[in-house]
Amino acid sequence: MTSNENRINALDCRSWERVLCVVAHPDDTEYGISAAVNAWTRAGVEVSYLLLTAGEAGMKRDPAEVGPLRAEEQRAACECVGVDDLVILDHPDGHLVEGLDLRRDIARRIRQFRPDAVVTLTFEFEAPHGLNQADHRAAGRAAIDAARDAGNRWVFRELAEEEGLEPWEPDVFLVGQVGDPTHVVAVDDEDVAASVASLECHREYLADLPDHPKPADFIPPMLAEAGALIGERNGVAFRVYELGGVAKSRD
């Protein structure tokens, strides 16, 4: 789906049944991507969130207290956009390592959930908002490798041989919060409101960031700007990559 052309297209998601969002921390999906998630779940798509850390290093409190708190806030955020399936792994926040263990954990979840699309955040050193955080970079790079690993029987053989998880490669890989999108998912006012509400669910986290703008002040303009790229009122921009795919059998 990527090309050398600068044209940005509307993303056709009508055939999708399942989408897996892979991010480093609680609240990562809530910075706009959750508007697309709400649109997908309203259309009957099953969406699962895979958080690689509990975000325990993200607040000015004891990490032992922060991890469970942020998980609770994330569950509330998921409810705002129709997500029932939330998996939080125990990789250390702030020390996320782009390596085989992380790739295996993501590939395992892909084989379990068998999504048509995997979504993550930009893994470039510089993001549109400034320097990208280390965990975000590691998460995104590991996710795109894992999306291909999951379809290869001979990578992480133990997933099939010991855990009974047959290979599965998603059709497409979406990267959000990029400066060079190729596609936009159109969303409506209800999706925008749900996205704002989902970030507002991270109350304790945002309270630790006194200079952070209110979700209602920056999310709607951001989504309106993306929507304008395809002539829509609102949208969520992504860079989209086609993956090789494997023969799929639906259960």
Automatic annotation (TrEMBL):
Which of UniProt's keywords are assigned here? Answer: Zinc
Species assigned in the record: Corynebacterium xerosis
Chain segments annotated as coiled-coil in the UniProt record: none
Q: Which GO terms describe its biological process?
A: glycoside metabolic process
Q: What is the lineage of its organism?
A: Bacteria, Bacillati, Actinomycetota, Actinomycetes, Mycobacteriales
Q: Which Pfam families match?
A: PIG-L
Does the keyword section mention Transcription regulation?
A: no
Q: Say yes or no: keyword Zinc present.
A: yes
* GO MF entry, a single one: hydrolase activity, acting on carbon-nitrogen (but not peptide) bonds, in linear amides
InterPro entries to which the protein is assigned, alphabetical: GlcNAc_PI_deacetylase-related, LmbE-like_dom_sf
Q: Give the protein name, as stated in the record.
A: PIG-L family deacetylase
